[in-house]
Known about the structure:
This protein has 334 residues and is α/β, with parallel strands linked by helices. It is built from seven helices and eight strands; from the N terminus they run H-E-H-E-H-E-E-H-H-E-E-E-H-E-H. It has one domain. The strands form two sheets. It has a six-stranded mixed sheet, with helices on both faces. The radius of gyration is 21 Å and the shape is globular. The N and C termini lie far apart (71 Å).
Amino acid sequence: MKYLFKILFILLISFLIKLPVISAEVDEERYTSGGQWEISSENKGFIKYTEQEKNLRVASDDNIDGRSFFDQKDTTNSHQIHTVYILASDSKDKKFDVNGTINKILEDTNNLLLKNTDKKFRFDLRENGDFDISFLRVNKTKKEINRLENAAGYFTGMAALNGFHHPEKVYAIFYQDYYGREWGQVGDAIFTSPKGEVEMASGVTYLGSPDAPIKEAWIPNTHELFHALGFVQLCAPNAIVERGSDWGKNDHLNTMNDIMSNGGGDFYRIDQKRNQYYDHSNSGCEMDLKKSAFLEPTEEDFQLQPRSKSCKLTRWQPQYKHQRSIDCMDRFNF
């Protein structure tokens, strides 16, 4: 009998160890991003998203057939992902926005989602059905950009400065050239509007990476957009939680063979067992990529990016706070 009690005691301890973190004990603010690029509506040259067309100034050499410099008229009122093609001030224009290169990346990205799920990203489209891709040449040279500690944040901030800060859009940014050894990053900028501060998160893909062919750029595009939407949440069973670090997070999976894996492997899989971040049933971890407002068809109980009290994107939100996310996104609308 004493052995039976011993076994039951061990099982009880094991169960308690595996219990999820209680929501009230999670400091959502701690699991937000660091190293943001700061941008303000008071900055010189700032353009409101509603006034792009009349205020943007375009170099004549960049003005070519088929190219768009501002967000075109929307074909839907739903949340969307808008695409921006960025060049450095001294970049030689390879015309990836008009020669089909970025179109193919976006198509491959959605093919991956459709193969793994019943969803796809709702990319911003023009009235003729083509992807709405905007062109932006920034004010730093390639060399200056490579010296930056946070190039993705800089690109996100420059996009916002030039009117790409729609309150119902997330941005997929493609930089034509390379940045260090990076293939893709989350771009995070702190945007100060008349309504207060709010983090702007985008997915940034580097098309000039010497180690990665452009034909595979759908991998970082998908991966970084998932991050920008708030995943992987650290309450997921296999999320990497760096408890000893100041930030305390990694927001990847510690398992192989998933698009969000830290160790790589098979990039073609999206939460295949449905137990981490997509269509899962994890208690105390309500954020679910399947419910993202930026995927279509959209769920009735859709979710926006998870926000902390300071309106930063938080990687650990056990209970999704929809109204807070709405209020934070409204800070872009002025």
